[in-house]
Amino acid sequence: MIRLGVVGGGTYGESHLTVFKEMEEHGRVKLVALADTNAERRAERSKQFGVAVYESHAEMLEKEALDGVTIATPDHLHLEVAMDVLTRGIHCFVEKPLDVTVEGCRTMIDQAATKGVLLQVDFHKRYDPYHMEMREAFLEGKFGEVEYGYAWMEDQIWVPMKMLRAWSENSSPVWFLGVHMYDLVRWIMNNPSPVKVYATGAKKKLAGLGVDTFDSVQAHVEFASGACITFQNSWILPDAFEAVVHQGVKLVGTEGIFECDSQYRGGRGCLRDEKMRTWNLGIKYRERDKKNQVRWRGYFRDSIADFAENLLFLEEGGTIDELEGLYPSGQDGLAITQIACAAEESIRTGAPVFIG
Which CATH code fits 2-124+291-328? Predict the structure, then answer.
């Protein structure tokens, strides 16, 4: 049975634990351990999921025999943990972005190749069925040649002010939101290389609240295919906005157009003790199994479960080469970090940045 460990037990790490615990109950994998620096969280997750807990990932790797490790730490901490995992020849799944530097991404990729293990990135927008249909339409030639498009992802301000407050100054709308949409659009268009980025950013609202990071970033990205896509990302929407995340994508080609409002899927309501809200049940929804136990479904889950499914495929005799193109790889993570780093450089210099 595939033995899995998780590093980071916060909001995203809890999702990893939830997915793997459910797969364990169906005899697919074994959720073994969690490493987290927060003592209170370790105690809570140990009770919640019945796993061994460790203060450091190094101790977990030393004491547990693991086939795969998932990393859900703050972005700027990915590299050290991933390298410790990969160096031991353990398959690795990293929350997006792969790393916040191009050099860090390449280091991870090289180590995974040297050890012959899987390096996968959690770009979960790929697992949305609407986005999957857009990609299939592109692969079938129904767009013709994509000429331009627009993608946006915006969060309520409580995300940088509360949810990520401990490290929001080490992030920005580029890293927390933009990388999702950079990858989504690139993947839909069958992974063309980014060649030029021009970006602008604003620091007003959050700076006034004592948080030194960008409110919003606008990036215009040109790809080798000739497509020019504009990306809008911010995390200063009012907390009263009806959804935590507002997101969508539009692509226009010589033969067709496809628009997807990835946030509003048709469910809207105002319930007792709640404000007006919309439900994005594509990303996460509840169902009950035959034992009346709640199970979470949706593409947020599917992207995490895919890592375990890939490890099961390898365990059954499959190869990493056979999986090529079927999961978000380290090379995909590198391409997206190149865009993100170019966007930041463009903001600093006020000039377009070429990626070569």
Answer: 3.40.50.720
